Amino acid sequence: MGIFQDGLMQLEQMGVLDVIVPFILIFTIVFAVLQKTKVLGTEPDGKTPRKNFNAMIALVMALGVIIPHVVGTYPYGADVVVIINTALPNVSAVLVAVVMMLLIIGVFGGEVNFAGTSVAGWAVLFAIAATVIIFGSAASWWNLPEWLSFLRDSDTQGLVIVVLVFAIIIWFITKSDKPKTDKDKDIFTKLGEVMRK
User: Fold this and answer.
1) What does the alpha-carbon distance between residue 154 and residue 94 come to, in Å, rounded to a whole number?
2) With 0-12 CB in 10 A as exposed, 13-18 as middle and 19+ as buried, what is 139?
3) Helices H, strands E: what count in the chain?
4) pLDDT higher for 194 or 9?
5) Which residue has the higher pLDDT, 49 or 126?
6) What pLDDT score does 144 carry?
């Protein structure tokens, strides 16, 4: 192994993957949500969120997830850190596939702007379904029936994603550009308008 592989192995043995990475991820997400929603109130100026309170809540929540993992008090199959570490590579694969799809569409169609279209609605549904499937599989919430067991193979999953990406690209390029009135808008177009906000 090279020096980079050795360095990464040492970082993994030091607990970076089990402690530091999940801690930073959870802290950042909780802090960002609290800052955006201003649930804990604002400073006297009425606009700035209370950063100190938000940081403290985010710290407590991140530590509340990490400490039981380190001490080993999670029940079997319910370790949040293991679920996160299992799901993140699949989430990254989906994100890379989506970015590659946007690049390919951009090559053929110039600027890509899905906001307010039915494509954005489908994207929202796809994102929700992909998140539920990925984290549900990582948490072992359900087991696939025997006749769908081939979907557990990572090569098959990659093939399915590639086929879906190219099917969406072909549909996007070949669809008609007829403008729609408000009455013609389908549920996916209305759901896609969420992407504008």
Assistant:
1) 13
2) middle
3) 7, 0
4) 9
5) 49
6) 62
CA dihedral 108, 114, 118, 124 (to 10 degrees): 120
At residue 43, what is the residue type?
A: E
Angle (CA) 103 108 114, round 5°: 65
- β-partners of residue 42 are 49
Of the given ranges (60-64, 66-70, 71-75, 94-98), which has the lowest mean pLDDT? 94-98
Q: How far apart are CA 96 and CA 105, in angstroms?
A: 14
Distance CA 188, CA 101 (A): 19
SS3 content of the chain, % helix, strand, coil (to 5): 75, 0, 25
Predicted local distance difference test score (pLDDT) of residue 111: 54
pLDDT greater than 70 at residue 108: no
Q: How far is CA 75 from CA 60, 69, 72, in A?
A: 20, 10, 8
Q: Using alpha carbons, select from 52, 26, 24, 54 the residue that is nearest to residue 38.
A: 54
> Which pair of tokens denotes residue 120?
């954005």
